[in-house]
Recover the amino acids of this structure.
C-alpha cells in the first residue's frame, strides 16, 4: 500500500482557499473517474481531504503514479497547481 498526499495551491496567488479546494476536488474526481484509470477507485482507499491537501492510499506504486499523472494533466484545465507530493 502506497500513501499518496498531494498539496494543491494557486501559484499566482489569486484564489481563495475555498476556490482552490473546489478546483482540486474537480481534478481528483476527474482522475478517479472510471474512464480515466479503470479500476483505480475500487482498489484505492480515499480520497481524504485535509483543507486543500488530498490523502489517498493506492494499491501499489503503479497506481499512485497513474493517479498522479492523471491529476497533473487535469490541473492546468482547472487553474490549480500541485504544490507538493509525499509518498509513504
Amino acid at each position: 500500500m502506497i500513501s499518496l498526499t498531494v498539496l494543491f495551491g494557486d501559484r499566482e496567488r489569486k484564489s481563495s482557499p475555498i476556490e482552490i479546494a473546489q478546483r482540486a476536488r474537480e481534478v481528483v474526481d476527474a482522475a478517479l473517474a472510471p474512464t480515466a484509470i479503470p479500476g483505480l477507485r475500487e482498489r484505492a482507499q480515499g480520497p481524504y481531504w485535509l483543507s486543500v491537501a488530498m490523502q489517498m492510499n493506492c494499491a501499489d506504486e503503479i497506481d499512485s503514479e497513474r493517479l498522479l499523472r492523471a491529476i497533473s494533466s487535469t490541473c492546468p484545465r482547472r487553474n490549480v497547481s500541485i504544490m507538493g507530493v509525499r509518498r509513504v
Remarks:
- The helical segments are 17-32, 40-43, 61-78.
